[in-house]
Amino acid sequence: MDNNAKFILKSGKDQSVKRYHPWIFSGAIKKSFGNLIEGEVVDVYDNKDNFLARGHYQIGSISIRVLSFEPTEIDYSFYKLKLQIAWNLRQRLLENMPETNVYRLIHGEGDNLPGLIIDIYNDTAVVQMHSVGMFLVREDIAKALQEISNGSIQHIYCKSAATLPKKALEDEQKDMFLLGDKESGIVQEYGVKYEINWIQGQKTGFFVDQRENRKLVGQYSKNRKVANVFGYTGGFSLFAMQNGAEIVHTVDSSAKAIDLTDQNVVLNFGENHSHKGIVADAFDFFANAEDTYDLIILDPPAFAKHHNVLSNALQGYKRINQRAFENIEPDGILFTFSCSQAVSPQNFRKSVFAAAANAGRKVRILHQLTQPSDHPVSIYHPEGEYLKGLVLHVE
Length: 395
Ligand code: SAH
Prior knowledge:
Largest sheet: 7 strands, mixed
CATH topology of the largest domain: Rossmann fold
Oligomer: single chain
Number of helices: 10
Bound molecules: S-adenosyl-L-homocysteine
Low-confidence stretches: none
Order of helices and strands: EHEEEEEHEEEHHEEEEHEHEHEHEHEHEE
Strand content: 25-35%
Mean pLDDT: 96
C-alpha cells in the first residue's frame, strides 16, 4: 500500500475532496512523490500530511479520479464489491421494469467507479473505459462481472478506443472481447424489441438513458402524427407506434441508423406499418418538410462537449427548437432534449424559451425530464446529471 505514489494538494485545494468530490484537477496539486505511472493507484494528502483519498492517476486536467476516501486496498475484491453493490441495486430497479433486459449497470461516478461505464444487453456486457486506470484492470472487471452475475453474463465486449485519451496506451488494442464473441443481439425495453450491434453502433450500441422518456412518448402518441428527429435506431418511434400513433417519421443523418430503424420496425410490427425512415440533416428536414406534425421529438447529440463551446451549443438548441415550433400543429406536443453535460437545465430552458418566442407560439411545460435511475448521480458529483428534457404543450 505504501508503494503508491503520493500527491500533496495546495493549501485550500482540499475542500472539494473533503466534500467527496471524486475529481482532483492538476491545478490543485502542490507536488508529487514516487514513480508516477499513468493509470496506477495514487494517494492524495492535504498539505499537513493528512490522508484524503486514493484513486487512478491520469495525465490531463483531471489528474486523479478518486476510488476511495479511505486508505482501502484497491484490488480485485474492491472492484468486485462495487460491482456487486451496483448489481444489487439494478436487480431492485428491474423489478419495476417489466420485459426489460437492457440497462446501465455502472454509471461512472454515480456508482463510485469513475472512468467506468457498463451497459448490459441481456447476456452481454459492453464495458467502456474513460480512464487508463480502469482500462488496466479490465480483466478484473470482466472476472467480477462473471462472478456477480452467476454466469448470466456470457459475453463481455470492451469498447474503449473512442473514449480513452488518444495519447494513452497508443500501441494497445482497446476494443476487444474479454469473454465470448457475440457481436449483436435482440434485447427488449418494456416489451419493445431492438436489434443492437454493440461493435458498430454508437456509444455502447444504444442510448439506454432514454428508456423512461421513450415510454412517456408512448403515452402521448395515440392518433398522433409523429416526427422523431435525431432518431438513431428508432427508439422513440417504436414506442409511438406501439401506442397507436397515426404515422411516424424517423429522421437521422446516419443512413446506417435509419437502416437499423427500418429493421427494428419490421422486428416489432412486421411489414404493414405506418412508419417512414428519412435520412436527412435535421435542419434540412424541417426546411423541406411537406408534412406538419403534432408530436415532435428532438434528441440531438451533445452540441457542447466542453464549456468553451457553450454559446454555440445554446444557439444550436435555439435554432432546432425554433424549427420544431414553426412546424408543429396547434395542440401539439414537443419532447425536447439536451444531453450536453456543459449545458445546465436553466440554460437549456432559456434556449427553448427563446425559440418559442421567436416562433410566436404559446408554450407550457408539462414534464421536466432527466436520466433514469440506472444512471444514478452522486450527490457529491452534480456533473453526473447530464440529460435534460422538457415536454411542452404548444397551443
Ligand atoms: N433518440 C435516440 C438517440 C439519439 S442520438 C434514441 O432514443 O436512441 C443522436 C442522433 O443524432 C444520432 O443517431 C446521430 O446520427 C444523429 N445526428 C447527429 N447530427 C445530426 C443532424 N445534424 N441531423 C440529423 N441527425 C443527426
